[in-house]
Amino acid sequence: KKEKAADEINLIEVGEHIQSSRRPSIAMVTEGKIDSSSDSDQEEICDKCRGPCIQHKLQRTYPQVRTYIGTSNTVCHMMKEKRSLCCLKLDEKCAHKSATSAHEYQWRNRPIILAADRTSSGMYNLIIPLRAYYRPVHDLHPIILLLELEEQDSLNEAFLDAISYFPDIYWMKGKIGNLDCLLKAGVSSAE
């Protein structure tokens, strides 16, 4: 037994010596841009995005506005900067965008259309898993909320504020029974 104990001590000593002279085989992988010596415009153009990569505009974090969130928190792909509320409305031009229909956006991924009569926490519970951190950034589908609001009704400001931090989420007034609204929302190419 004394010989066996001595062997174990030697093995431990050898193991400690090896570990101190080697790097660990498992190291933390950090997300970040690898610096290169050439700073060309071609490096910033993403083949999947067909322009500047959306990944540079996003971060993985908890949603900033938690008004509509249920009890569980999920890390999501969130915009680093809040989008303007005017940019959330799909069917109206604003100073930042000129597209007025889903077809004009020319998204790479097929949109998901959600038709409802009003906003609710159920919508938010649909959005969270569709923007969760484990989904690849380039595979995120645009989400269009088709809301049956009356002409005098407007969307809840708290809800607009909550969705403004998520990438590629838009809303528009319309009815599921109206073909023009469905075509503007992109039903012909929807998921």
From TrEMBL:
How the protein sits in the membrane? Multi-pass membrane protein
Protein source organism: Caenorhabditis japonica
**Key word Transmembrane helix present:** yes
Concerning InterPro entries, the annotation shows:
K_chnl_Slo-like, RCK_N
Q: Which domain of life is it from?
A: Eukaryota
GO CC annotation: plasma membrane
Q: What is this protein called?
A: SLO-2
Residues forming the RCK N-terminal domain are 110-191
User: What are the recorded GO MF terms, alphabetically?
Assistant: intracellular sodium-activated potassium channel activity; outward rectifier potassium channel activity
Q: Where in the cell is it found?
A: Membrane
Gene encoding this polypeptide?
slo-2
Q: Which UniProt keywords apply?
A: Ion channel, Ion transport, Membrane, Potassium, Potassium channel, Potassium transport, Transmembrane, Transmembrane helix, Transport
